[in-house]
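Notes to self after the Tuesday call (sharing in case useful).
The group wants a holo model before anyone commits to mutagenesis around the pocket. I volunteered. Ligand is guanosine-5'-diphosphate. Logging inputs and output together so the record is complete.
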Amino acid sequence: MMKLFGGKKDNQENQASGETPKSSLFSRMKQAVSRTRESLSAKIEDLVALTRTVDESTLEGLETALLTSDLGIQTTTAILDALRNRARHQAIVGGDELRSLLKAQIRAILEAPIANKANPLSATDGPRVTFLVGVNGTGKTTSAGKLAAWYSAQNKSVLLCAADTFRAAAIEQLEVWATRSGVQMIKTRQGGDPAAVLYDAASAAKTHHINELIVDTAGRLHTKTGLMDELDKMRRTAAKLIPGAPHEVLLVMDATTGQNGVQQARQFTQSAGVTGIILTKLDGTAKGGIAVAIAEELNLPVLFAGVGEQMADLIEFSPAEFVDSLLE
Ligand code: GDP
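Result:
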């Protein structure tokens, strides 16, 4: 196994995901949020079709449209307050102006937690340790595999750690992703101690000057004290070997769970020290507005979006592209 360390594999799929031009990323984001866009844009079109100057009833209609797209009450209220404030000072004339003010509002909400982020994604040479946490079925293992391919395509050396030792299937599944993306993986048997496999992985990452160590963890609810303690133990283990680790704790959230997911994320953020979000399954949901609610209500940056089940279906989240995709 060790002979491959240090030599970055240059496979075809990596090339495909890593060299995707910007225009193509934008079209993929557009494709992913198409259901949210269709639902939101259609409602906004209906609202502004009849009025030239945006009045209170238009804003009330907009409120309903935003709530239906899962922006949530707190976020929708913040947006509406800002638009009402603007309308009081200067009339909002026509649909185009309303749309561009709405876009600016949403973009500012999404950008704020990214701008405040303590560790930008490319800050160190590593080993930088990233934990993927969340409840079962959200797409943790899939995202760990895609993230490995994403970093690999950025010419980073990557090591995967299969610390979801509860499910044999998770270890096997991650192994498939590791092979596909041409990165190494450290694993243990099912039922093994996740902190022990992490210790081995962190040691290997140090010895072999790995840039990115990506750790898939078992699915857990924030209410399961034993499992949250286990996560704490993993944090301490990582920090003992690599100063500052884990540098990122990314909560993997399933966009299709909408507002329920936000409540769950709030709890997780407090108990697991979450630093950012991977928002999966953005393809095929009309609840894409959840990205905005996460930024506004949890003050957490959405860093990546999962837009399908293939290896290249993880895109770095850009607020500008998201907003342009959502509201043309
Ligand atoms: P885990 O239990 O959190 O590790 O979840 P898995 O990684 O096993 O993923 C659960 C299911 O969600 C699998 O069928 C994945 O293929 C699927 N999945 C994960 N991410 C995405 C995504 O971005 N889009 C879609 N459509 N499916 C996804």
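Two things stood out.
DSSP finds 13 helices and eight strands in the chain.
Residues 6-18 have pLDDT under 50 and may be disordered.
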